[in-house]
Specification:
Helices cover 40% and strands 18% of the residues. It is built from 15 helices and 17 strands. Strand 10, helix 10 and strand 11 form a beta-alpha-beta unit. Helix 14 crosses helix 15. The longest helix has 25 residues. The model has no long low-confidence stretch (mean pLDDT 97). Pathway: Amino-acid biosynthesis; L-arginine biosynthesis; N(2)-acetyl-L-ornithine from L-glutamate: step 4/4. Belongs to the class-III pyridoxal-phosphate-dependent aminotransferase family. ArgD subfamily.
């Protein structure tokens, strides 16, 4: 194409708002767990686009789904429904606690819908005094003003004017702190079964069961934000299944589309009926393109082969991280479940997670942080064992460089 502009990393500073600080290299092509930049340099991807590319890059089944659907129907308004959305909803309902589904475009939109539904349910069933939402410190629920206020990191919501009210924060994995806040005026508790952005910290069994019991006691809805933990990431289709604790509303996104933007909430008939005609909506939510891709991803992820394979890969990741730690002594622990893992910096390397990421990029490896003290891994759920092997050879070199620079 003759009108293809030449762009590079410098173009970002020229034309994009400065709310991101992307790496100096620009990825242009991906295949499985491999990515290439503008200069043709190859990287192994252990970040998965922040737990999004659940089947790696350009998986043939997803490519086929988008190609086929792109020649049929891209978008209709919500005056109509469409077949891919209905098929995807049926599959999600059949494999979870839910009776009903609502589709949107992102995790933030899913949590927005979940919180609005919880407030409407409480209002109609119990009255307007029942409006308190309780979340947890260090949690992350999205960037809309409602969801960022619910999130437990005030730095993300400060400085935008008056915040939505009746939102309080307890301490994660501390049941007493929730008990001190919850009352019959609590409409919902929203929590991640494992803190993602907040440090890759799984809920303890006693905590998550205790939260469920407190919600039941006070007629509060329990919302699980499974945007990052869901859709196979933990080795279960959704992580609530690992705990045997069922939420009232569950939000899902990220991996759900395998790289194509889609989000949704799952809930019961009893609760869902309160999102009556006209109470909520989205222009693109549930569009046929997104749902066709998500359905193709679902058909692969929700199989014994893939879900059981995640446990094997988790063991490989943990073994490799422990071997590296025996050599360099940089981590205090390896946290997480399935293929959402966090290597926590020990005291000697406190606050230095970003340096490990930068060194990894130099060695041809993509990984993430989860706060200043945790290196986060969220690779493809079907990452090949030889790619794990090669990725950790590169990570070993990156760690060696950071330690040598002490």
């Amino acid at each position: 194409m003759s009108n293809m502009l030449h762009v590079n990393r410098a173009t970002f500073d020229e034309v994009m708002l400065p709310n991101y600080a992307p790496q100096s290299v620009v990825p242009v092509k991906g295949d499985g767990s491999h990515v290439w930049d503008q200069d043709g340099r190859e990287y192994i991807d252990f970040s998965g686009g922040i737990a999004v590319n659940c089947l790696g890059h350009c998986h043939p089944a997803l490519v086929q789904a988008i190609q086929e659907q792109s020649q049929k129907l891209w978008h209709v308004s919500n005056v109509w429904t469409n077949e891919p959305a209905l098929r995807l909803a049926k599959k999600l309902v059949a494999s979870t606690f839910a009776d009903k589904v609502f589709f949107c475009n992102s995790g933030a939109e899913a949590n927005e819908a979940a919180l609005k539904l919880a407030r409407r349910y409480a209002l109609e069933k119990y009255g307007e005094q029942k409006n308190q939402i309780i979340s947890f410190n260090q949690s992350f629920h999205g960037r809309t003003f409602f969801t960022v206020t619910a999130g437990g990191q005030a730095a993300y919501s400060d400085g935008f004017g008056p915040k939505p009210g009746a939102i309080d924060h307890a301490t994660y994995n501390d049941l007493a702190s929730l008990e001190a806040l919850i009352s019959d005026n609590t409409c919902a508790v929203i929590m991640e079964p494992m803190l993602g952005e907040g440090g890759v910290t799984p809920a303890t069994d006693a905590f998550i069961k205790g939260v469920r019991a407190l919600c039941d006691k006070h007629n509060a809805l329990l919302i699980f934000d499974e945007v990052q933990t869901g859709f196979g990431r933990s080795g279960h289709l959704y992580m609530y299944q690992a705990y045997g604790v069922t939420p009232d509303i569950l939000s899902t996104a990220k991996s759900l589309g395998g790289g194509f933007p889609i989000g949704g909430i799952l809930t019961t008939d009893e609760i869902g009926q309160h999102l009556k005609f006209g109470t909520h909506g989205t222009t693109y939510g549930g569009n046929p393109l997104a749902c066709a891709v998500a359905e193709a991803a679902f058909d692969i992820v929700n199989t014994a082969e893939v879900l059981q394979g995640i446990e094997t890969r988790e063991r490989l990741f943990r073994d490799k991280l422990q071997q590296i730690n025996q050599k360099y002594d940089v981590f205090s622990e390896i946290r997480g479940k399935g293929l959402l893992l966090g290597a926590v910096m020990n005291q000697a390397h406190e606050g230095r997670a970003k340096e490990f990421i930068a060194a990894s990029v130099e060695q041809g490896l993509m990984c993430l942080v989860a706060g200043p003290n945790v290196v986060r891994f969220a690779p493809s759920l079907i990452v090949e064992p030889q790619d794990i092997e090669e990725g950790f050879l590169r990570f070993d070199k990156a760690v060696a460089r950071v330690v040598a620079g002490d």
